[in-house]
Amino acid sequence: MKVPFVDLKEQYNSIKIEIDNAISTVISETSFIGGKHVDEFEKKFANLYGVKHCISLANGTDALYVLMKMLGVGSGDEVITTAYSWISSSETISQTGAQPVFVDVDEYFTINVNKLEEKITTKTKAIIPVHIHGQMCDMDKIMEIANKYSLPVIEDCAQSHFSEYKDKRAGLTGIAGSFSFYPGKNLGAYGDAGCIITNDDELALKTKMFARHGALKKHQHEMEGINSRLDGLQAAILNVKLAYILKWTDARISNAVIYDNVLSSITQIEIPKVRKNVKHSYHLYVIKTEKRDELANYLKENGIDTAVHYPIALHNMNAYKYLNYSREDFPVASFNENKILSLPMFPELKRDQIEYIADKINDFFKN
Ligand SMILES: *Cc1c(COP(=O)(O)O)cnc(C)c1O
Q1: Is pLDDT of 332 > 90?
Q2: 367 pLDDT exceeds 90?
Q3: Domain 245-366 adopts which CATH fold?
Q4: pLDDT averaged over every residue in the chain
Q5: In this structure, which topology does domain 8-242 adopt according to CATH?
Q6: Distance between CA atoms of 88 and 58, rounded to whole angstroms?
Q7: Which helix or strand (DSSP H or E) is residue 195 part of?
Q8: H or E stretch including 49?
Q9: Which of 166, 191, 262, 353 is at a distance of 20 to 30 A from 149, taking alpha carbons?
C-alpha cells in the first residue's frame, strides 16, 4: 500500500467542478488583484470567526511582519517567541529590526509558559505564541503574563485554523492572529496566501494600509508600506474551500483518534499529547521515538511517506548563530530534533491506511 504524506489532489478532485468554475470566473472577470472575491473572502472568514476584521495578505509570513510593524516593533526592541517553529515566526521579528528572544517548548511542543516571564526585559515589545501542529498554547497563562507587563500578544495561527482553547478559536485571544493559507496548511490556497484577524479597529486599519503601499484610497499614500495582497484567484479558491473547512477539520480529528487508538499500545513511540480544554486541529500528527531515522526509512520502504517538522530548532540554525545560543539553552526543543516524526495526516486519509501504518510501525519494533 502507498500512503502519501499529504494528498492535495484527492481534495481537489472532490471539489473540482466548483474550483474550476471559480478559477474561470475570476479569469473571465479579470478580477486578478483585489475585487469582489477578495472582499468576499475577508467577509466570510471574519464571519466564520466572529471577528470584526479580516485583512487578507499575500502570505502568513507577511501577516506577522505587518502586525509587528504596525504595533511599533522596531530596532532596539525584543520580541519573545518559541524556539520551535517555522522560521517565519522569528525571521519577521528580525525584519522589523528587533531581536528574537526564544523560549523552550513544553511537552505539547508549544511555548513553555513557565519559562516565559523570565525572558521579559524593558526592551520586550510583544509576545508571539505559535499554536504549533494545530494545538493551541496555554493562552490563560500567556495572557496573564502579557497583561501584567502590558505586552501585545500576536497569535501565530498558521498551523491552527479552527483550533480552540477553552472554546475560543486561535487568533481571538491576543490583539491579533496571523494565518497562512499555504497549499499544505489546513485551509490551503493554490499558491501563497494569508491573513490577519483582529477586533482592534485601529490595528485593522493600519495593517491594511501598510500592506497596500500605505494607501487605503488610490494614490493617497499616508505612509510607505509594502505590497502584500491576496490575489483574486486564491480568494475565489479559498471561498469554495470555506464551505468544507469545518468538515475537513473534523476529518483530521477523527483520523487522529484512529491513530491514537492503533498506536497507543506501542511503547517505543510517544503519541502526541493533547492539552486539557483544547481542540487540536491536527495540522500535523507528530510522534516521538528514539529510533526516528530507522523507523522513517522502514516506513518509506513500505510505501509510507513521513516528514520531520522540524529537524533543526530555531536557536540551532545557522541563521541565529549571531545570538550565541547553545543547544542546552532550550533542551526540550533541541532534544526533540532527533525524535520527532510527522506521520501522514490529511482529511482524506483512510482508516485502512492508518491501520497499515500502525502495522508497519509494529513490525519495525518487533524486528
Ligand atoms: C507556514 C507558517 C508560517 C508562514 O506562512 P507562509 O504563508 O508560508 O508565509 C508562519 N508560521 C508558521 C508556524 C507556519 O507554519
Answers
A1: yes
A2: no
A3: Aspartate Aminotransferase, domain 1 (3.90.1150)
A4: 98
A5: Aspartate Aminotransferase; domain 2 (3.40.640)
A6: 14
A7: strand 194-198
A8: helix 36-49
A9: 166
The arithmetic mean of pLDDT across residues 358-363, rounded, is 98
Give, for ligand 1, the residue of 6, 59, 86 to mutate: max count of ligand atoms closer than 8 Å to Cβ.
86
Q: Does the beta carbon of 160 lie inside 6 Å of ligand 1? A: no
Of 180, 187, 286, the one to substitute when testing ligand 1's pocket (max ligand atoms within 8 A of C-beta) is 180
Within the chain, all domains assigned CATH 3.40.640.10 are found at: 8-242
Nearest CA among 3, 22, 68, 4 for reference residue 189: 22
| Average pLDDT of the residues in 197-211 | 98
pTM for the whole structure: 0.98
165 Cβ below 6 A of ligand 1: no
* Spacing, Cα 264 to ligand 1 middle (Å): 30
155: Cβ below 6 Å to ligand 1? no
**What is the distance in A from the centroid of ligand 1 to the CA of 169?**
18
Among protein residues, the one whose CA lies closest to atom 6 of ligand 1: 60
Q: What is the pLDDT of residues 244-261, one digit of tens each?
A: 999 999 999 999 999 999
Residue 1 contacts by C-beta under 8 Å, 6 or more apart in sequence?
302, 303, 352, 353, 356
**Mean pLDDT over residues 179-193, rounded?**
98
